[in-house]
Design brief:
Length: 211
């Protein structure tokens, strides 16, 4: 690829770069195992409602945030996010995807992390990995800089991922777009790509078939 061209590599995080979801492990890290266990009776009904399709993923995520993070200061959340990024996330990363990110960076491509997980731990991790930007779900803060229990804007899932990438590009047009995902929450993102991968390197998605 000509490095003067705008080549973008868009990566989902949970299940693509990582072996597993990172949101619940972050809540356990932030609240502590005992406090997390104590809060389960409050979030299990919400989780079951989500699994049954009675509420959407944003409402479910915000209930977990309300129970475990509401009222925590911005400074403390940022400290916890940086700690989680440094201490826990490295153990969750697929080596082959870390290598793929390094390859894209070495080619001069713009790496973009697009995830439904939270900015407070994705951003410090992504900076170390050389990502150009992070487009993710974001915590909402009140006027006193404490977590409100809500997200700022939409949960970055499904069509929201594609919309965030388009907004980030603005008037620019990527000469070539790679996209990496692992689930139906990445379909709209993968559909934008010139070269799309489902579940890391294991399956190339053919966009002619609507992915």
């Amino acid at each position: 690829m000509n490095q003067e061209k705008l080549v973008v590599a868009a990566f989902d995080f949970d299940g693509t770069i990582t072996y597993r979801d990172s949101f619940i492990p972050f809540l356990v890290y932030a609240a502590g195992k005992w406090q997390f266990a104590k809060g389960l009776w409050q979030v299990v009904p919400c989780y079951l409602a989500f699994k049954c399709g009675r509420i959407n993923n944003q409402a479910a995520k915000e209930e977990f945030i309300r129970v475990y993070l509401s009222g925590v200061s911005q400074a403390e959340i940022q400290r916890l996010g940086a700690g989680f990024a440094a201490e826990v996330l490295p153990k969750m990363i697929r080596p082959e995807l870390a290598e793929k990110i390094r390859w894209h960076n070495s080619q001069g491509h713009q790496c973009v992390l697009i995830s439904a997980s939270l900015d407070v731990y994705l951003e410090p991790w992504a900076r170390k990995m050389g990502f150009a930007t992070v487009l993710s779900s974001r915590l909402s803060w009140n006027n006193q800089a404490f977590v409100t229990g809500c997200l700022k804007g939409n949960n970055c899932y499904g069509a929201e991922k594609a919309a965030r990438l388009k907004k980030w590009l603005g008037t620019r047009k990527a000469d070539f777009l790679y996209a990496y995902g692992d689930s139906r929450g990445d379909r709209e993102l993968l559909a934008l790509a010139d070269e799309a991968y489902l579940k890391g390197k294991r399956q190339i998605v053919d966009n002619r078939f609507g992915m």
